[in-house]
Structure formats: C-alpha cells, structure tokens
Write a structure and sequence with these properties.
Number of strands: 8
CATH topology: Cytosolic phospholipase A2 catalytic domain
Distance between the termini: 30 Å
CATH class: Alpha Beta
Shape: globular
CATH architecture: 3-Layer(aba) Sandwich
Helix content: 40-55%
C-alpha cells in the first residue's frame, strides 16, 4: 500500500509531521549535518520539536534553533551558514591552513599536510595545558558571535539537549534548553587533546561524544514528536581491517564514539519489541526512527578531515549532506508519520 500513500500525497499534498533531530558529533564533518539540515528546511511539511546534539551536533543544534526561532526556516539556514563560515575564518589564524599544494597533491585528504601533521605530533607530545597555558578556546567566541543564547533559553518552541562528558565521574551531563550557554556547547565540543576542559559551576567537561553521541532518550521522554531523525557522522562499520597504527587508533576512536549510541539504539529496539506485549508499551510503539549517515562519502577524506576547517572543504561536505538528505527524502520521506525507516540492524545490534 506504500505506492497508494505516495499517490495520495502527490494529489492532496503530504501531511505535515513533527520531527525530532538527533545530531551526532564529528568535528568538521558536522558540515555534512549542516547540509542535511539545509535541505530539510526546504520541506515545509516538516515541523521541528526537539533537537539533541553532541559536539559538532550540538553546534549545529544551537545554530539551527537560534536562526529558526528568530526568522523561521530561512533564518535557520542563514544561521548555520554564518556559523560555519566563522568556524572556518577563525581557524585560518592557526596552523590548520590548506595550501594550494595540499589540494594539488592530496585533494581533500590532509593526512600528509605539514600543518596537520604538526598539530597531531604536538598533541601527542604535550597537553593543551602546556601548549595553550591561557586556555584560549576559539569555539566560545564563534558561538557567542553566532547564536542568540538568551532567545534559546527563553523561547520554548524548540526543546534543546546538549551532552557533555563530566571529567571527574566520566558520566554524561545533559544541558537542557534553559541551561544552554556558549560554554555548555563548547564543553560538548571540547576534545581533551586540543583544548582545556571547560569549567561550568565548578565542574569540568569534555566532548559529549564520549558518553552521549547524541542522547536519544530525552527526545522520546520530553518531546511531543513521534518521529526521530538521527544524523550519524561516525561510520558504524568499516569494510577493511585497520593494520597501520594511525588507522587502528582512528578506528578505535570511531568505535568509542559510537558505543553509547549503539547501546541506546539497541535498547530502544528491545523496548519497541517488548512493548507489543503490554498496554503500557504504547509510548515506545508509537515512536518512529529514521537515519541519514555519510555512508562511504567520507571514507577517502583521511583521518585529519575531521579537523579540516577549510571553507571549500566545509562547503563540499555541506553539498554531500544536501545530496544525502534529498535521497533520503525521496526514498524514505514518505515514512514520516507512518513507520520507521531505520535499518533493523541498528536497533537490534550485531
């Protein structure tokens, strides 16, 4: 009957649907998520209820919300572009600058770029407390210039959840809409090998990707929308066995940053299956899961692509995100409001 629903939608117009967004972290690959959001914002039948983000996902979440609450869909699109432009501009003052020779020799891959190799080497020899004793974190300034946090905290039309990792206990810390500041988002994006831990109310925080990348449960328990779209940047699978030390470290980090999300998805799958047997399970049965991921699009970009702030590269990722979102809308957009489109393997584990 799916084809009949498609005909009905073309004749009568697709029904409006409320959607929650779960945005994973991934450094510069967050520009892929920018592209996904940019394309989704063109779909006027989709309204938004809650957004949960970690690291770059948190950065995208607050930029989206700030622009959306101020000036609707176009405001959100403009806000995302302005934020990523500032991220790129700010980075040009550091060592991560792309040269014409980098493009000529390696395309988008920066694994052999001198500036990127220098940053990687220094981060393994000394801590950010030695290399950056003043604790400068450019993300705080970028966020303060790009996002109206006062509006976010007081306008309840969008619910926001930003995850960070509590350094002392190793547990997840979830900042809700009323608590979100530039420092909270910077904490969510704080890689401990590059930046000082972010102090908030006497406690210190690192990147939220370690413990909730992103947190899904608040979208189910504290928001009204029954559809949730996960934008996943870290590949859950790799076809080849890593054998070099850099590739082994990179894959180990990918597994670590996906571990909590994988467990949460598997647990949600178990809840949905068990819910069919009990009347109280209606809460879980009515939720629908969807996902967009990078697929193989980033596999040839190299390990250092996650810290590549070059504007042309970010725009390339944005365009990839738009393409993937458009393909998802064509293939699975009709499932919104009706059924889950996420692959069953993600919610039952392997």
């Amino acid at each position: 009957m799916g084809w009949l629903a498609g005909v009905r939608d073309r004749v009568l117009g697709a029904p409006r649907v409320r959607l929650n967004l779960a945005l994973q972290g991934g450094g510069s690959h967050g520009a892929f998520t920018w592209g996904v959001l940019d394309r989704l914002l063109e779909e006027r039948r989709i309204n938004y209820d809650g957004i949960s983000g970690a690291s770059a996902g948190a950065v995208n979440a607050v930029a989206f919300a700030s622009g959306f609450l101020a000036a609707g869909r176009q405001g959100a699109r403009d806000s995302l572009e302005q934020l990523w432009r500032r991220v790129s501009d700010q980075a040009q003052m550091g060592p991560l600058q792309t040269t014409p020779l980098d493009y000529l020799l390696h395309g988008w891959n920066r694994d052999w770029s001198p500036g990127f190799m220098l940053v990687n080497s220094l981060s393994r020899m000394a801590s950010p407390y030695q290399l950056n004793p003043g604790g400068f974190n450019p993300m705080i300034q970028v966020l303060e210039e790009s996002v109206d946090f006062e509006r976010l905290r007081h306008d309840d039309r969008l619910q926001l959840f930003v995850s960070a990792t509590h350094v002392r206990t190793g547990s997840a810390r979830l900042f809700r809409r009323q608590e979100i500041t530039a420092r909270a988002v910077a904490a969510s994006a704080c890689l401990p090998l590059l930046f000082h831990a972010i102090e908030i109310d006497g406690e210190h925080y690192w990147d939220g990707g370690y413990t909730a990348n992103p947190a899904l449960w608040p979208l189910f328990l504290e928001c009204r929308a029954h559809d949730l779209l996960l934008v996943q940047l870290t590949p859950p699978e790799r076809p080849d066995l890593p054998t070099s030390l850099p590739d082994i470290v990179d894959r180990a980090n990918e597994i670590a940053f996906n571990a909590n999300l994988a467990r949460e998805l598997e647990f949600l799958g178990m809840l949905r299956q068990g819910a069919a047997a009990v009347p109280s399970g209606l809460l879980w049965r009515r939720h629908r899961l969807h996902d967009i991921d990078t697929g193989s699009a980033t596999s040839e970009m190299g390990r250092n692509s996650r810290i590549n702030p070059d504007w042309h590269f970010l725009c390339h990722l944005r365009d990839l995100g738009r393409e993937h979102a458009d393909a998802w809308l064509q293939e699975s957009g009709g499932h919104l409001g009706r059924r889950s489109s996420m692959g069953a393997h993600k919610t039952r584990g392997q």
